[in-house]
Amino acid sequence: MTWWWQALISVGAAVLLIWIVLLIALLAAKPGKVQLAAALRLLPDLLRLLRRLAADPTLPRGVRIRLGLLLAYLAVPFDLIPDFIPVLGYADDAIIVTVVLRFTVRRAGLDAVRRHWPGTDDGFAVLTRLTGLDR
Predict the structure, then answer these.
(1) pTM of the predicted model, to two decimals?
(2) 3: which of 22, 38, 113, 121 is 20 to 30 A away, CA to CA?
């Protein structure tokens, strides 16, 4: 098997596992009035949000660079903490996403994040609660 197939399979597996971890975290947090459909859409919506924010020319360059680096980090099959380590393996990804989103809100405003959010209002409420952006 060539290296790019291995990388592609690794990225696909990592995205699927991150999605499952986020879903479990979401269900454990028991957000009010959020249906399972909104929970299932959280990770794909989050990835589309990051891509849209990174491509927005109205945002400051530093914000777009950090978002681009975040997307690259999430796409690379290796992490700071390997994903095979239970809980901690995916915690680093969640922490890095949270830090970059908080930085984005501080620099560009919550309105920019809301404007680019592709999901439902319930999904956005869950995202802001899980990342601490609602404070």
Answers:
(1) 0.65
(2) 22
